[in-house]
Every structure is written in structure tokens, then in C-alpha cells.
Design goal:
It is a single chain. The chain is α+β, with helices and mostly antiparallel strands. It has one domain: Clavaminate synthase-like (Double-stranded beta-helix), CATH 3.60.130.10. The protein contains seven helices and 16 strands. It has an eight-stranded mixed sheet, with helices on one face. The chain has a three-stranded antiparallel sheet with strand order 13-7-15. The longest helix is centred in the last third of the chain and has 15 residues.
């Protein structure tokens, strides 16, 4: 599909039946004209994941591109890997600059759901990738919600979930220091949120979702686990095979994502550059 948004034309090609589209013909180092920006955002809402091919952005250039879609979100202190708190380098490299064997973000989650204003979009730019594997995987939470039985949809109406950075860290075997807990206190959001541009409903949960508000924690967590098992069925998933120069922009409002561990992380580096756009309070 070729999209003409004066003064630029770009090509858009769906990546899978469930979500995702690749865009070619744009240089994201240059500001997008207003008509192009609107066309890109419309595609973002429709396809949930956009892959801009053949990009080579510095940190400053990625910040400038991201700012065209909203306010940048700061990262949790441990993820501020450079001088700029708005950029997070996602990496499996150790202090010696060599692959450590450790890979982060391997659990299904949506970025910064523990914030009062969770992320609208994440922009992730591949810098160094393994020759095979290391995909970023996405699960479509609109499709997962729509596939629920009517009785389940009714039961979930009005239910709220407490998202907790502290509990999320504990589950991963890490301890969140007091300053991070103070910076990201527990936050409740609707379990089913509405995408304002389309009116579609999506499950809003993931690894940061700790328990259901006003319900016993153990029972609430069990229900969240059931919903997660439903939501990450193969029929809802797209795995993005990275190419050199890929830059992904995805909709955190209606997706879960994680990194695929299907490569030797002790041998091959996997380094990406991340920025996030702050969203609105889920409703």
C-alpha cells in the first residue's frame, strides 16, 4: 500500500494477520510534515506496531522523532543507562562491554503500566542484534478481549488492577530500592481499557499487574494468570524478526510484549535504543 501525505509518499505493508505493518520511504532523522505525522499515527492506531525500515538515529534524533507524538517519559532509575534520563539502552552487555548471558524484558508486560499515565507508545531502535533470534514478541490485547466469552467480559466490567513496580521486581528476583518505590508507587487502572480513537476494548495487564483491587490478592493473581494464559495464545501473537536499521513504534495501550530468549545471549550482543511517549490515564 502506498500512502501519499503531501509532500511525502511512503509505503506500508502489513507484517502479519494479527498486527504490525512495515513503513518504508521515510527518513526519521527529519521532522515529519503534519500530514505525514497524522498518516503515521493513523497507521499506528490501526496496526498497533509500526516498523520503520532503514533508519539510523542517534539518541538526540530518536528523542526528536519521539517528541512529535507527545511528551517523553522518564525511565526508572536503574534503566537510565546514559546521561539522558529519556533514553534507555536495552542491552545484554556486561560492565566489560561483552555479552553477559542475561536478557531483560523477557516477561510479557506493557511499558510503565505502574505510572498514573502509562506509556502511549514505545519506540525501540535496533543498534546491534544477534544474527538470528532475539525477536520482540507482541500479543494483541484487543483480539484477546474480543475472544473472551460474553460472561467473562461482563464479569470484568469495572474491575481494576493494581500495577506495582515493587512487586514486579520481586517476582523477577530483584529488590526495588526505596527511591524507586517512592518514584513508582502502586497504581490502579481498569483491567479493560477503551482505545479512545476507535472505541475498541483491550485487556490491560501484564507482568506489572499485581492483583485485583478490592479482592484477595491470591485470588486476584490467579485470575490475572488465567487471563494472561488466554491472552498470549499463538493466535494473538506476532514475533518481530529484527533487521538492521529497524525502528519499532508500538501501542502500549493494547499490546503486551517481551524479548525472545531464542539466541545465545552469552555470545551475541543485543543492543537497542528505547524512548517512550507518555499516555493518558486509562479509561
Amino acid at each position: 500500500m502506498t500512502i501519499t501525505a503531501e509532500p511525502l509518499t511512503f509505503a506500508l505493508k502489513p507484517l502479519s494477520p494479527v498486527l504490525g505493518a512495515a513503513i518504508t520511504g521515510l527518513d526519521l532523522r527529519e521532522p515529519l510534515p503534519e500530514t505525514v505525522k497524522r498518516a503515521v499515527y493513523d497507521a499506528f492506531v490501526r496496526y498497533h506496531v509500526l516498523c520503520f525500515r532503514d533508519q539510523h538515529l542517534s539518541e538526540a534524533q530518536q528523542i526528536a522523532f519521539t517528541e512529535q507524538f507527545g511528551t517523553l517519559e522518564r525511565h526508572i532509575a536503574r534503566n537510565r543507562t546514559g546521561a539522558n534520563p529519556l533514553v534507555n539502552i536495552v542491552s545484554n552487555l556486561g560492565p566489560d562491554g561483552k555479552p553477559s548471558g542475561k536478557l531483560s524484558s523477557t516477561r510479557w508486560h506493557t511499558d510503565k503500566s505502574f505510572r498514573a499515565l502509562p506509556s502511549l507508545a514505545t519506540i525501540l531502535h535496533a543498534l546491534v542484534m544477534p544474527p538470528q533470534g532475539g525477536e520482540t514478541c507482541f500479543a494483541n490485547m484487543i483480539a484477546a478481549y474480543e475472544a473472551l466469552p460474553t460472561a467473562d467480559k461482563t464479569a470484568l466490567d469495572g474491575v481494576r488492577v493494581v500495577h506495582s513496580w515493587e512487586i514486579s521486581c520481586a517476582r523477577a528476583g530483584k529488590r526495588a530500592p526505596p527511591e524507586e518505590i517512592a518514584d513508582a508507587p502502586p497504581m490502579a487502572h481498569p483491567l479493560v481499557r477503551t482505545i479512545p480513537e476507535t472505541g475498541e476494548k483491550a485487556l490491560f495487564m501484564g507482568e506489572h499487574a499485581a492483583y485485583l483491587e478490592g479482592q484477595p490478592e491470591e485470588a486476584g493473581r490467579a485470575r490475572l494468570d488465567q487471563l494472561a494464559a488466554h491472552a498470549v495464545q499463538e493466535r494473538f501473537i506476532y514475533r518481530h524478526p529484527w533487521r538492521a536499521g529497524d525502528l519499532l513504534m508500538w501501542d502500549n495501550r493494547c499490546l503486551l510484549h517481551c524479548a525472545n530468549t531464542n539466541f545465545d545471549a552469552a555470545r551475541f550482543p543485543r543492543v537497542l535504543q528505547r524512548t517512550c511517549v507518555r499516555g493518558l490515564a486509562p479509561a
